[in-house]
């Protein structure tokens, strides 16, 4: 992961680099402590930046988390788009889209178990579960 950070940071201006470093540090802290227990001070310590620097770029930890979530969604969308471009038929495109999207969502959600517990605790809902096996058997 460190190599990715270095490679990506070479293509950015100073503000973009600082923001990227804050987001990467925040991602680690959210994964470790969840959103409710994480503070801006925790993120500042992990990133090696002062709290004032964090507040220069972001209004709150919730804004940071929202940007991380948007980045994750964009990453998942890009992966799905690449997968559907590999096949020609609409049926295969749909299957590749659903399979890759669900796989990436599952992988991403598994990185944030504490956050998922907090979300479930805040919004009790029943969400239908779709498995990859069910998609494979629907042919």
Can you describe this structure?
With 139 residues, this protein is mainly alpha-helical. The chain has a single domain (2-137), classed as Tetracycline Repressor, domain 2, CATH 1.10.357.10. The chain contains eight helices and no strands. The chain has helices spanning 2-9, 14-37, 40-47, 51-57, 61-84, 90-110, 113-122, 132-137. Helix 2 (14-37) packs across helix 7 (113-122) and helix 5 runs antiparallel to helix 6. The protein is flat. The termini are far apart. 13% of the residues are buried. The model is unreliable at 1-6 and 124-130 (pLDDT under 50).
SSE topology sketch:
Layout: H1 2-9, H2 14-37, H3 40-47, H4 51-57, H5 61-84, H6 90-110, H7 113-122, H8 132-137
Using brief descriptors, characterize the structure shown:
8 helices; disordered N terminus; mainly alpha; 139 residues; single chain; flat; 0% strand; Tetracycline Repressor, domain 2
Short structural summary:
This protein is mostly helical and 139 residues long. The chain contains eight helices and no strands. It starts with a helix and ends with a helix.
Strand pairing plus helix content: what structural class?
Answer: mainly alpha
Helix content: over 70%
Shape: flat
Let me know the largest β-sheet: none
**What is the H/E order?**
HHHHHHHH
Tally the beta strands: 0
Distance between the termini: 38 Å
């Amino acid at each position: 992961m460190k190599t990715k950070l270095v490679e990506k940071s070479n293509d950015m201006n100073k503000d973009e680099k600082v923001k990227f470093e804050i987001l990467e540090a925040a991602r680690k802290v959210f994964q470790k402590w969840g959103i409710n227990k994480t503070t801006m001070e925790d993120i500042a310590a992990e990133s090696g930046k002062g709290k004032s620097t964090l507040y220069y770029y972001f209004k709150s930890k919730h804004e940071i988390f929202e940007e991380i979530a948007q980045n994750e969604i964009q990453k998942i969308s890009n992966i799905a788009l690449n997968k559907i471009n590999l096949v020609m038929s609409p049926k295969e495109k749909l299957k590749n889209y659903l399979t890759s999207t669900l796989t990436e969502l599952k992988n991403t959600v598994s990185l944030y178990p504490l956050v998922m517990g907090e979300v479930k605790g805040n919004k009790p809902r029943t969400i239908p579960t779709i498995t990859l096996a069910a998609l494979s058997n629907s042919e």
